[in-house]
What does this fold into?
Amino acid sequence: MNGADGMVLTFSDDVAENIRFADEASAALRLKVDDYIARAGIAAPPATDDPAEVVAARLPSPPITALDLAARGIGTIIWCTGFDGDFSWLKIAGAIGPDRQPCHVDGIGTTSGLYFPGLDFASTRKSGTILAAADETRRIVAHILARLGA
It folds into this structure.
């Protein structure tokens, strides 16, 4: 996100570049792991692709570079970002475990009404990636709708 001016959010048109960078970084890490396994003589099965980790990018055309929240009827934003899971600010009983991480099942908090999208390994190995957000969002919205009886 580039900025927020009252009720309008603005975005860069660099999603494709960020996806490409993340894919390249993932491939480079995988090569390092494979190289280490080979150098250390570890008897490991060959790496296999996991379909649960593959998500095809669906980029809007033209790209969305601005979003008028009022015009779209958006009253709440849940912004999930970061690399370090610091949940010390969350002071709701039962929300955080002794490991200082959220108590959840597949991103759905064990404390009613709390949701934790985007956690690494929340439901699959691809959880925590940008492209996994669509799957996690559908699951969490379905849970909310079921709670509301909708």
